[in-house]
Backbone:
């Protein structure tokens, strides 16, 4: 069965975006040459991405407006809007949990839950995330979009890996 992973960064106080929805603060405390590329290692075992409409919009308008950076993957965008799907980007108006359950039954590599917070929280509430890869950024935002908000039940996790670099901390947890 396919593994569902959350791979995301958050501020020290638990936000994935500032109050304007921005992510310009996603950086370490010093020179980026000190960063470790945990992303490249992570995506070796991924072939499918799940994201919300706001995350998709931010990617195509702000973070990478000229190039679709996830061309090596099939991307599902959860949205209520009518968009035209392509071979690599599929827009669906579906409950994220139902989509994950369907995708897990299909052959393939892992599934990356890319964001946003509402999608993540729905999947956490349904206990559908197998591995949590969370990078803590050395910034306190004070407000914004929280990663884990309005949780339904307690989720017990087991820490399986940590790594620090450039003031950031990579944490990897599995469900207990």
Residues:
């Amino acid at each position: 069965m396919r593994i569902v992973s959350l791979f995301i960064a958050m501020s020290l106080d638990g936000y994935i975006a500032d109050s304007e929805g921005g992510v310009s603060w996603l950086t370490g405390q010093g020179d980026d040459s000190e960063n470790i590329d945990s992303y490249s290692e992570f995506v070796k075992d991924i072939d499918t991405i799940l994201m919300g409409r706001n995350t998709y919009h931010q990617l195509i308008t702000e973070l990478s407006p000229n190039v679709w950076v996830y061309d090596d993957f099939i991307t599902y965008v959860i949205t209520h809007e009518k968009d035209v799907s392509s071979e690599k980007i599929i827009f669906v108006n579906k409950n994220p949990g139902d989509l994950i359950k369907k995708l897990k039954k299909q052959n393939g590599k892992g599934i990356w839950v890319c964001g946003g917070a509402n999608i993540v929280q729905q999947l956490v509430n349904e206990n559908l995330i197998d591995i949590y890869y969370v990078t803590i950024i050395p910034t306190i935002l004070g407000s914004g979009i929280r990663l884990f908000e309005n949780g339904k039940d307690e989720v017990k996790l087991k820490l399986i890996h940590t790594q620090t670099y450039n003031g950031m901390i990579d944490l990897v947890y599995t469900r207990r």
User: Anything to note?
Assistant: The radius of gyration is 16 Å. The CA atoms of residues 84 and 129 lie 28 Å apart. Strands lie at 4-11, 15-17, 46-52, 74-78, 89-92, 110-115, 131-137, 145-146, 157-165, 168-175.
